[in-house]
Design goal:
Radius of gyration: 14 Å
Helix content: 25-40%
Strand content: 25-35%
Order of helices and strands: EHHEEHEE
Number of strands: 5
Largest sheet: 5 strands, antiparallel
Length: 134
């Protein structure tokens, strides 16, 4: 396993994180469509954390990429309170907000949120052999 870390201080760092995800996914030989999805979920997760942190002024937070032979795990590690994932990844049709988590749940093979000491760890896993999103 290879572990890469990046601290997010501003929106430019989110763009860098998206590019890092793309580089890793290309090196791992993910199909082009899945590379696009991985880049998108990175943006959604990082933007959600950035918006939360900007409102409480506790930047930076950290993005971690765990590279395994058969899968990529992207983790957002932030201070904060545990939150729940939407049941079944359903959208609220009455709201223009709140679409990021259901989108992430749909595109990734596994998504978890857990409390680790004073941190929340939001982990998204994509298996390289999965062909479901091509």
């Amino acid at each position: 396993m290879v572990l890469i870390k990046k601290r997010i201080f501003n929106e430019a760092d989110i763009w860098d994180a998206m590019a890092q995800t793309e580089r890793i996914a290309r090196e791992m030989a993910f199909p082009a469509s899945e590379i696009l999805y991985l880049r998108l979920v990175t943006e959604e997760a990082c933007t959600n954390a950035f918006e939360h942190y900007s409102s409480v002024q506790t930047l930076p937070y950290e993005v971690r990429w765990q590279i395994h032979p058969d899968r990529l795990e992207i983790m957002i590690r932030e201070c904060g309170q545990l939150f729940s994932l939407p049941a079944g990844g359903t959208l609220n049709p009455q709201s223009l907000r709140g679409r990021g988590l259901p989108l992430i749940l749909h595109l990734m093979d596994e998504v978890n949120v857990r409390q680790e000491e004073t941190y929340i760890e939001f982990t998204m896993r994509k298996d390289r052999s999965c062909k479901g999103n091509e």
